[in-house]
Amino acid sequence: MSLDHDSDQVHPTDEMGAPPAEAATDIYVQRFTVAYDYPVAFTRDLFAATNPVFVRAVTRQDPDKLARIMVLVDEGVAAALPGLTEAVAAYVAAHADRLELVAAPEVIPGGEGCKNDPALVERLQRRVVALGVDRHSVIVAIGGGAVLDLVGYVAATVHRGIRHVRVPTTVLGQNDSGVGVKNGVNAFGQKNLLGSFAPPFAVLNDAAFLDRLDPREKTAGMAEAVKVALIRDGAFFAWLEAEAAALRAHRRAALDRLVRRCAELHMIQIAGGGDPFERGSARPLDYGHWSAHKLELLTDHGLRHGEAVAIGLALDARYSVLAGHLAAGGEERVHALLTALGLPVWHPMLEAPELLRGLGEFREHLGGELTITLLAGIGRGIEVHEMDETLIRDAIAWLKARAA
């Protein structure tokens, strides 16, 4: 930390207490940095009593102190795994010398709808306070990306920040949103309008959760892997092409590798991209998302997030070619891979007049300057500050023609 002081001299004030006009101004520039670190674990059967990953992660900063934990479970996950809450309680009991539940694990609504419910946010905040959960306690969220966003927001806003452990249960949660530093809920018709940048205390990825995941959810989560490969890792994109059949069949080894490499690339971008809290306007990890966010809303979330992202990737790949950034044929590879994985590349709402409003909303979310990531090559992104609406419509027509 440093404190810089720029001043010539001290001037007396007049009888009203104000300094004379010629007085020098004292300016103190406060500077400090805060180091963040959190484990991102890849394991299987996280809540088996003999698996030490959870207890070590939760108690890592205070290993000699009993950790008080509050556990919130996505209702969709609880329904798919009826014994999950009991397994969590049994795990804590098996490690009673280091862990303590403040209450029985609580099941909460999941899916994108949970992020549209201000009453649910307030109810959970009140629950945290009522249970005496403080800044040395831990709030554990087990669920999909929407529940992680919601609980992360609650944890970040009570007591100005409570330790938050994420246990993602979807491909999308494990390979993308779970390892990031953002939390938020939807408001006023906009996705993630209210939120915080608050790094998690730990991210614990249990591959066993993916075994029971709905096939559509497994496939939808792969879109973020295609995205990060397109902007950062051409070799990973080529691997996705080679393994598309195995991935579409959700074979365990291929899916595990996809999840891990995608998470690694997201972590590299967050740590090394120079802007983890998005102070600037560039958002390379949002490639394909300007239209995806709007499509989710226009379809009333009939499209899953990953499905909307897949369409956005295909759209912006074709636009990249039309705008002269990407060599012709690159968009064909993107379209072919998405199709091979079983992801959608077309939806009629692409032709809705409201779609182009997504650009304006994206600009506002960025703080006024439009910055869109497009493709300069497979594995290489490029930032632009404007998009031609005529070319966007041409790209939409190209996608429609292939869907016919």
UniProtKB/TrEMBL annotation:
All residue ranges annotated as the 3-dehydroquinate synthase N-terminal domain in the record: 107-218
Listed InterPro entries: Dehydroquinate_synthase (IPR050071), DHQS/DOIS_N (IPR030960), DHQS_C (IPR056179)
Keywords noted in UniProt: Amino-acid biosynthesis, Aromatic amino acid biosynthesis, Lyase, NAD
Broad enzyme group: lyase
Entry EC no(s): 4.2.3.4
Domain 3-dehydroquinate synthase C-terminal: 221-357
Cofactor(s) needed: NAD(+)
Sample GO molecular function, one term: 3-dehydroquinate synthase activity
PANTHER family: 3-DEHYDROQUINATE SYNTHASE (PTHR43622), 3-DEHYDROQUINATE SYNTHASE, CHLOROPLASTIC (PTHR43622:SF7)
Name of the protein in question: 3-dehydroquinate synthase
Source organism per UniProt: Sphingomonas quercus
Native organism taxonomy: Bacteria, Pseudomonadati, Pseudomonadota, Alphaproteobacteria, Sphingomonadales
